[in-house]
Amino acid sequence: MKFRRPKGTKDVLPKDIAKWHYVERIIRETTELFGFAEIRTPTFENTELFKRGVGTDTDIVGKEMYTFEDKGGDSLTLRPEGTAPVMRAYVENGMQSESPIHKLYYLTSMFRHEKPQAGRYREHTQFGAEIVGSDHYYCDVELILLAKEVYNRCGIQDFRLKLNSIGKAEERRNYVEILKSYLNSNIEHLSEESKRRLETNTLRVLDSKDMNDRKVTDLAPKILDHLGSESRTRFDNVVNELSRLGVKHEVDFRIVRGLDYYTDTTFEFLSDDLGSQDALGGGGRYDGLIEQLGGKPTPGVGFGSGVERLIIVAEKNGFAFGEQKAPLVYFIALSDEARKICYGIMRDLRKLDVSCETDLLGRSFKAQMREANKLNCRYVYIIGDDELQKKKGQLKSMATGDQVETEFGKIKENIE
RNA sequence: GUGAGCGUAGUUCAGUUGGUUAGAACAUCAGAUUGUGGCUCUGAGGGUCGGGGGUUCGAAUCCCCUCGCUCACCCCA
After folding, report:
1. Is the pLDDT of residue A1 over 60?
2. Domains located in chain A, CATH noted
3. pLDDT in tens, A328-374
4. Residue A192: pLDDT band by 50, 70, 90 thresholds?
5. Are A148 and A34 in contact (CB under 8 A)?
6. Among all strands, which nt has the closest C1' to A9 (CA)?
């Protein structure tokens, strides 16, 4: 019997891990530079949280959740998205009474039962940031700036930023009625999927890729023309501020997002280096969510961004990730007695933060030299019978080939 | 859930109209005069040809079923 990893999951092997560490570091450093603090929530939550927060008509909740019953009969779900859990934690821990505003970020796995394809996994890593407690338009801008800065620092320059506003709940309800009647009058041109969606999640008809759907929606009434003055002003402020700060963007009425909690600003970052799944990240404002989860009415805005996709795009752009660090000194012992001496020297060096390792297979001298070379060690330290006698080993630089007799206790002084 | 393409050593791939013990490169390991890496040379290990069934004297090759992978639809990060 052969075991395979579950469909849609991945193994990150040692040869690729340096890449992940590097990107994770950029994400954390950049996000903290903007004054965000990390928050960690459980890998699974009560299923009801996502039904309530994300919405039962969404694809995520409707057909993509990993839901199971535990031994106590509770229905639990592996986190399919980051915002609802963070807001649950915000409310549950009374964070609003610590401070009127919180800037939070996360970097963790998300789980969705989808059919895997390029850039789409069943377990994927997302970093996201949320600003809770303020409805100031600059919050929206700040988050966009943060995402942009992370992308830039990963060598990604040529992504597209698309923006839209879907207004406040009531404005959207009114608009949806207008859109519905327009779509109904053109229903014979719509795809089957869009016909179904027309009733369940009308806005989503707008982001259909179907050519015929697009012909219909191109001429559909636009939500931006149906916003109240407050929403309209906020949207104009966001757009103008982005322009003023030199952030390229385009307004696109199709950016409606698939989660129910969004209000007002919505945005997506798209890349051409990603095949069919072209979203690098996306987000928006969710002013009703916290109330929905039982908290006091509190505004919030956030985004999520796929780390696998970020790495894919960075790689395509030839980004130089760091390399795995090689041990500095490789110890070669030519006898059992010499080996014991090595173990002691290595213990002492490691206390001094000098990285070192030695052969664990009892291999030949030549094989050990080869190993040191393959690992890219800067030095080898050789102890044979002569060296045991003199209590001085041979410290050899792999780059120059130079070799100097060095006392057992004086290796650190003779390297670097 | 729907559709298309692809499954041969660890990896990337060859494999002639079905015909002997299924190959190469890279990788791995070992050796090339006594205790010195990279380059080179020599050699070794490693495959139930995704799995099952069928046709045939004979199947990696033909047929059927099945599983897996990949990409697209869908959806999103």
Report:
1. no
2. 14-168+228-316 (3.30.930.10), 329-414 (3.40.50.800)
3. 999 999 999 999 999 999 999 999 999 999 999 999 999 999 999 99
4. confident
5. no
6. B69
Terminal CA-CA length for chain A: 50
Residue nearest to nucleotide B75 (CA to C1'): A59
Q: Which nucleotides of B are covered by protein (CB under 7 A)?
A: 1-3, 28-32, 35-38, 68-77
How many Å from the CA of A370 to C1' of B43? 18
Position A312 pLDDT exceeds 60: yes
Cα–Cα distance, A20 to A23 (Å, whole number): 5
Nucleotide nearest to A201 (CA to C1'): B75
How far apart (Å, rounded) are the C-alpha atoms in residues A28 and A22? 10
Chain segment A168-184, per-residue pLDDT in tens: 988 988 898 888 888 88
- pLDDT tens, residue by residue, A7-21: 999 999 988 899 999
Question: Quick check: A258 pLDDT over 80?
Answer: no
ipTM value of the model?
A: 0.86
Query: What DSSP assignment string belongs to A255-283?
Result: ---S-TT-EEEEEEEE-GGGTT--EEEEE
